[in-house]
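pls read this protein.

:::
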Amino acid sequence: MGEPRGAVRVAVVSAAAVVLSLYGLVLRPRMLDWGATSEETLRSRPGDGLVPGADGGSTMAATLPGPPSAVWPWLLQMGYDRAGWYSWDRLDNGGRPSADRLVPEWQSLVVGQRLSSVPSGRAWFTVAVLVPERTLVLRADSRMPSGRPFDPAAGGAPRAFVSSVWGFHLEPAGENTRLVVRAHGRGRPRAFTKPMDLLFWEPAHFVMQTRQFHNLRVRLGRVVTGEPGRP
């Protein structure tokens, strides 16, 4: 009985090793630079130095209909307590549909402003860089495992934390816009945050970001065709 069980264990371990190898060597690199050209991936961006010693990140991109001036207002109104995030609303917006029209009262944004990221308002992104119609960079600093925010400028980081940056960069592409989204961060203790990055945060970011690209494209397409939206 021992020999067959041992053979099964070896087979399971071998299969797991193959799957992890395929993910690490083939799937993960494509996921981290999904849609982006080599030039877009390698180019430096505003906000790159906000988290010194960043040990993980991605650069993803999509072409959206309309010039940067048409895309920018949709980014300005993001936030849980504003238009939402245009992604999978059940996962990141409390189940409330993200707005599919522009709302004038959500078109004001300044550096230092907080954008709630959870229903309770106890976690948020802070606007770190804002260049109209060019760049919007959001930053989050969270204690682990509670997820409660902390201020890295007020005495340094706690022993367990994640600091991350989510940057949106707009570039004209003929009559359209290239939206390049760069995310990077640093977490400690690395023995805990690295496996979480590989197995959860990176795949989760890929799923949510590609959905946001899709939904922004749909909303901008409706503007082009004159279809009505909802708040």
Residues 11-21 have pLDDT under 50 and may be disordered. Residues 37 and 192 are 31 Å apart (CA to CA). The radius of gyration is 20 Å. The longest strand covers residues 161-173.
